[in-house]
C-alpha cells in the first residue's frame, strides 16, 4: 500500500490495481482541486474542501462513493462509517455539521480517517467498531476541527501504530502542525509518500509520520 497526501484532509491510497481517496478536494474548494482517478472515494464532511467526487472520476471510472455512516464493501475493501460532528466551514446560523469517521480494512490493515472532527471524544460505537488501528489520520488544525492538544490526546488514546496529522496543509491555524508535534516532543518522520506492508508495523507504537503535500 502506498499513501500520498494531496493537501488538507485528502489522501490517496493505492494498493494493487485499486485506488482509494479520502476527502478529495473539489474545484469549488479553498485548496487546489485534486486530479486523479479513484475506485473508492470517502467523504467525511459535505464541504467543497472534502467532497470532490467529480475530481476523482477519471474517464469511464466512477468511484464507489461513501458519504456517511454505515457499513460498506467494495472490491474486497470493507468500510465502517461512524457519526460524529464538525465545526469546520459552517454556514451562518449553524452550530455544527455532520462528520463521518471512517475505519477502512484492506490488505490486513485498518486505516482510520477522523475527517473534520471537532468532537474531543468518539462514541462508544466508533471506538468498539474500529478495532486495532494501524494508521490514524487525525485533524490538528483547530479552526473548526480538533486543536493540537486535543488531537494528540485523542490520537494517543486510540493506540494506533502510526499517526498521520492532517488539516494543516493549506488549511487550519498557522503552525498547527508544529503545535501538534510539540505535544509529542517534536519527534516525527517526514516523507513524501508512505509505503506500508503489515510487517512494517511491527514495533510501531504511535509513531508520527508527516506526509508532505
What can you tell me about this protein's structure?
This protein has helices at residues 124-130, 148-158, 176-183; strands spanning 2-5, 11-15, 18-22, 40-42, 64-66, 70-74, 77-86, 97-106, 109-113, 135-139, 162-166, 189-191, 194-195, 207-211. The protein has three helices and 14 strands. 12% of the residues lie in helices and 33% in strands. The protein has one domain: Ribonuclease Z/Hydroxyacylglutathione hydrolase-like (Metallo-beta-lactamase, Chain A, 4-Layer Sandwich). The protein has an eight-stranded mixed β-sheet with strand order 6-7-8-9-10-11-14-12, with helices on one face. Strands 5-4-3-2-1-13 form a six-stranded mixed β-sheet, with no helix packed on it. Helix 2 crosses helix 3. A hairpin with a 5-residue loop joins strand 1 (2-5) and strand 2 (11-15). The chain is mainly beta and 213 residues long.
